[in-house]
Design brief:
With about 260 residues, the chain is an alpha/beta fold. Helices cover about 30% and strands about 25% of the residues. The chain has 7 helices and 10 strands. The strands form 2 sheets. It has an 8-stranded mixed β-sheet, sandwiched between helices. The protein is globular.
Length: about 260
């Protein structure tokens, strides 16, 4: 089934990356995109995924909205958007950023703890009513990488969790609360990286991917490795990060995973 607006008659001119390795030179800084929030992902990720897995006017949902990167891409690509976030400062910031375009009102953003099943149901119902819909067509999740960056002091914030088993347990609840609103046979993606704790790599991405495969009827359609060359502090082979790595026994983190799933329930 074809769930996009791509013109395959001119497929050679298509700018959609179908490789499992994405090497990106620098983040897109055009329009509303600003690198003001530690942990926001580069706009090229939602841009690629939205074009590949949705049509115009379909609904994209994010349970971790952050600073609005995906919303801004939905605005540019003419998709509808529902976003939750537990950080009231981000809700205020994104609302301010959206005030300059009165023509685009196809979005709903809510201060929400995505672990709270009852509240998620309430606000999702209200949000979808705005679009006269009962479901969404794509979900994009970019959760915190445990407590590497603490985004709020809220005990329900996943960035407060320092234990990988507890993190996966809570993330499973958020997947349950979110995926029930995704149409069957449609797609969702998880953008996540690994963490380094107590002198070893914790493969958080693979723990989360395994949890989804074990608990939900889905097919894993892609495991994409993303590297952005413009990571601050890690530019060039002669930098301080390279010296520290050579002095020790580890490798420099420059990757993130993008796991793409197809829902079959």
């Amino acid at each position: 089934m074809k769930y996009n607006d791509l013109d395959l008659k001119n497929w050679k001119e298509c700018d959609i990356n179908t490789d499992s390795l994405w090497l990106i030179q620098e983040r897109d800084k055009s329009g509303k995109h600003k690198n003001i929030y530690h942990g926001n992902f580069i706009p090229q990720i939602p841009n690629q995924l939205i074009q590949r897995y949705t049509k115009k006017d379909e609904i994209v949902f994010e349970p971790f909205m952050g600073s609005g990167t995906t919303l801004f891409e939905c605005e540019n690509l003419q998709r509808k958007y529902v976003g939750f976030d537990i950080n009231p400062q981000m809700i205020k910031y994104v609302n301010t950023q959206m005030q300059d375009n009165l023509l685009y009102q196809d979005y709903s953003i809510i201060l929400c703890n995505s672990l709270d099943s009852n509240f998620v149901d309430e606000v999702m119902s209200n949000s979808l009513q705005k679009f006269n819909q009962k479901s969404v067509q794509f979900i994009l999740m970019h959760p915190p990488y445990m407590d590497i960056v603490k985004f709020t002091d809220d005990k329900n914030d996943l960035s407060q969790i320092d234990n990988i088993q507890e993190f996966v347990k809570k993330f499973k609840i958020i997947c349950e609360n979110s995926l029930k609103y995704l149409d069957k046979d449609r797609y969702f993606a998880i953008v996540i990286g690994d963490v380094y704790k107590n002198s070893e790599v914790l493969p958080l991405g693979f723990y989360c991917m395994d949890m989804i495969k074990r608990n939900f009827k889905v097919k894993l359609k892609g495991t994409i490795i993303k590297n952005i060359e413009g990571n601050r502090g890690k530019l060039g082979t002669g930098g301080i990060w390279r010296y520290r790595a050579l002095k020790s026994d580890y490798y420099i983190f420059k990757h993130e995973y993008i796991f793409v799933f197809k829902k079959e329930f």
